[in-house]
Design brief:
The protein is 33% helix and 23% strand. It is of the alpha/beta class.
Length: 541
């Protein structure tokens, strides 16, 4: 049998493939690297349909690139990105942004003072095909109203983002009222307000955006006493709303939603206001049904600052309403998380099953549970996540007694020394809790010691699935041998599935595990498969 080989060189690649490759490269790199390579590339780059993306991140060869590559091809540049003010100034001294950039569609301006941005925006009004504009300013104390009024004069703009540095203390914020031209309507469809925004400015901006489809706001707050204004506007195409930090009372948020949320399909909000009515599940249900009937993707997080004394309100006692048929039918899950400074309540539509999660990573854990344990049973928590680097292991174990409906346990930073000590000194407590819990899924972030898994098996004797990760293949094989040897002694009576993560897992690793299992006759009726860095091993099929 004879075999012939065809030698493939770069010249054999099609023009279409080269154009696709060019789309991933910086325009100046393309022109510098290919334009004088040979006649074929000169022909490819002379095609007027080929456009370029220019990303200026360094001053190296900047003048050469401006004069040799950018100016002669200004009409073929579709994207310009400037890393900072210095690069923009150097560029503009050679290449003014004017109508010669007739096909420019995307413009990114980073780290500019406000006065330079406003001057540049006036010049850029001649860019009649500009679709996307991203701007970031160096100061957080800026009158953004003039900037927005300039932006609304761009007739083709579809995407706009304005970013300002975070304001640490909103008491320092001086509101500059947004003056709206009632006849000024913008073509913008996707807006990211990446800065603090008052209710007045927020609604005034939206009143100019009848075509808006998606909206994101960094911080929404009330600068002074708000008096509802009868501003009549409509955003019928708005389907996505994200508020990254809401500092409003629930009444004011509800007022805003009544104005703009009718057609929302996605709504995400993080609330940092001491208004406990945000924990009223029935009120959320009413708002969603009446104001957002098309909502599919919903995520709400409410932060409650936790001090040494937990103060229980009437709304805490009604948290079980988040488990009514309304939430259950939508498969939107309730989460409770305790950190060092905050108690975080959330509803999330992104989970695959209706489980109630509790995450704990706080030195306040023991104090908190003394106050809150009376309503743990109402919450029907089924998944617990513990960070043992911040929560004593004994507190973690005691938590299981308060959460009788747990079926999943995730533990990170489990210290085997502390686990061994607890097993010795508190063995009766451990056995009592182990006897009563129903945990079948256990997730350990990383398996480093036999003592870790010995403790988890003692604590969770009903374990059916064990998920963990390993640093190397040797550890993986060593622990597998130990697990299957111990299983023959009935240490793992119900365990029948492992999900093992190992960095850069390959099919060869799977083959090595199969050889180990077959050679030592560790399992007989099993299935093993790899998905990315995860290896799934099931038996007793």
């Amino acid at each position: 049998m004879s075999v012939s080989y065809r030698r493939t060189t770069i010249e054999n690649l099609s023009n279409e493939l080269f154009y696709e490759i060019f789309d991933y490269l910086d325009g100046c790199d393309i022109l510098n690297g290919f334009s004088k390579l040979n006649s074929r590339f000169q022909y490819l780059l002379s095609n007027p349909s080929v456009s370029f993306k220019i990303n200026l991140i360094t001053s190296t060869n900047l003048e050469h690139n401006c004069r040799t590559n950018i100016l002669p091809n200004s009409s073929r540049i579709r994207s310009l990105k400037f890393a900072d003010e210095f690069l923009l100034d150097s560029f503009l001294s050679i290449c003014p942004l004017n109508q010669t950039f007739e096909n420019l569609r995307q413009l990114h301006l980073n780290s500019l003072p406000a006065y330079k941005l406003t001057v540049l925006l006036i010049d850029c009004l001649s860019l009649t095909n500009l679709v996307s504009l991203t701007c970031s300013l160096t100061s957080c104390f800026v009158d953004v109203s003039y900037i927005y009024r300039l932006i609304f004069r761009f007739r083709t703009l579809k995407i706009f983002q304005l970013s300002l540095p975070l304001i640490e203390d909103l008491d320092d914020f001086e509101q500059a009222l947004f003056v709206v031209d009632k006849h000024q309507f913008s073509s913008i469809e996707h807006l990211k307000i990446d800065h603090c925004c008052t209710i007045d400015d927020f609604l005034s901006i939206l009143s100019c955006l009848p075509n808006l489809k998606s909206l994101s706001c960094q911080t929404l707050f009330q600068a002074n006493e708000y008096v509802e204004k009868h501003v009549h506007f409509s955003v019928p195409n708005l389907t996505s709303l994200i508020i990254e930090k809401c500092l409003l009372k629930f009444d004011l948020l509800e007022m805003i939603l009544n104005k703009i949320a009718r057609n929302l399909k996605r709504f995400r909000i993080v609330i940092r206001h001491d208004d406990f009515t945000y924990l009223d599940a029935q009120r959320w249900q009413t708002i969603i049904c009446q104001t957002m009937p098309n909502l599919k993707n919903f995520r709400m997080k409410y932060y409650e600052y936790f001090q040494d004394q937990f103060k229980q309100s009437s709304f805490h006692k009604l948290l079980d309403r988040f488990f009514s048929s309304f939430w259950h039918d939508k498969n939107w899950i309730f989460n409770l998380e305790l950190t060092n400074n905050d108690l975080i309540y959330s509803i999330d539509s992104s989970a695959s099953s209706f489980d109630t999660h509790y995450h704990c990573s706080s030195s306040h854990a023991e104090t908190f549970h003394e106050y809150f344990s009376t309503i743990f049973a109402l919450l029907n928590i089924t998944c617990l996540s513990i960070d043992c680097s911040k929560v004593p292991l004994l507190i973690c174990v005691k938590l299981l007694r308060l959460l009788p409906n747990l079926h999943s346990l995730k533990i990170s930073s489990l210290c085997s020394t502390e686990a061994k000590r607890l097993s010795t000194e508190k063995s009766k407590i451990l056995q009592s809790i182990a006897f009563n819990n129903k945990i079948i899924n256990v997730h350990l972030d990383e398996l480093l010691d036999f003592g870790q898994i010995q403790f988890l098996v003692t604590l969770c004797p009903s374990m059916e699935l064990f998920r963990t990760s390993f640093r190397n293949l040797i550890d993986l094989q060593l622990y597998l041998q130990w697990i299957f040897t111990k299983q023959s002694t009935n240490l793992f009576p119900r365990l029948d599935k492992l999900i093992l993560s190992i960095l850069h897992a390959t099919n060869q690793i799977v083959d090595n595990l199969v050889n180990l299992i077959e050679f030592q006759k560790l399992l007989f009726n099993y299935r093993i498969q790899r998905l990315g860095d995860q290896i799934s091993l099931s038996w007793n099929l």
